[in-house]
């Protein structure tokens, strides 16, 4: 097998472990009959891990880091998260992403291909979002990344959303426990308390 889940995880607080199973062709494509989606998933995963992979054993960890979403972990472990949260535009970006999700404007990734590559769809969305909010550069990209991926660094956000969409119905049971779907992420953003998050960052600094 590709690996096993060695820690308990809940949808609200997923735990990314060093050895989480990702789909194998015999376990997914053959069983579901959706070989094309599986192939697209593997291509997307390959693209994502190319930047940071050093050993083949890194693949599971890198892929599952993109499928997971754990803001609490980031608040407690990333020294740069406070800078992103403190940006004046953060609440505006968060609200815009939530509103765009509910209006259908926020690109969600696709499992059916399409005439326009999802990377281009995502790029166009970010350009439009920047114009609407009068933001550009880090003031736009950093809050978007934190809101949608739960991290302040990592692969392209659009690539991660596409991987998340393609993983639907393909993941091994253990990996599915780690995975946090886009609708779940948006729900967490809707209940996100910025002031409490900033306090948590300060508490961690004081420890």
From TrEMBL:
<keyword id="KW-0030">Aminoacyl-tRNA synthetase</keyword>
<keyword id="KW-0436">Ligase</keyword>
<dbReference type="InterPro" id="IPR020751">
    <property type="entry name" value="aa-tRNA-synth_I_codon-bd_sub2"/>
</dbReference>
<keyword id="KW-0547">Nucleotide-binding</keyword>
<dbReference type="GO" id="GO:0006412">
    <property type="term" value="P:translation"/>
</dbReference>
<dbReference type="Pfam" id="PF19269">
    <property type="entry name" value="Anticodon_2"/>
</dbReference>
<dbReference type="GO" id="GO:0000049">
    <property type="term" value="F:tRNA binding"/>
</dbReference>
<dbReference type="GO" id="GO:0004812">
    <property type="term" value="F:aminoacyl-tRNA ligase activity"/>
</dbReference>
<keyword id="KW-0067">ATP-binding</keyword>
<keyword id="KW-0648">Protein biosynthesis</keyword>
<protein>
    <recommendedName>
        <fullName>Aminoacyl-tRNA synthetase class I anticodon-binding domain-containing protein</fullName>
    </recommendedName>
</protein>
<dbReference type="GO" id="GO:0005524">
    <property type="term" value="F:ATP binding"/>
</dbReference>
<feature type="domain" description="Aminoacyl-tRNA synthetase class I anticodon-binding">
    <location>
        <begin position="120"/>
        <end position="164"/>
    </location>
</feature>
<dbReference type="InterPro" id="IPR045462">
    <property type="entry name" value="aa-tRNA-synth_I_cd-bd"/>
</dbReference>
<dbReference type="InterPro" id="IPR008925">
    <property type="entry name" value="aa_tRNA-synth_I_cd-bd_sf"/>
</dbReference>
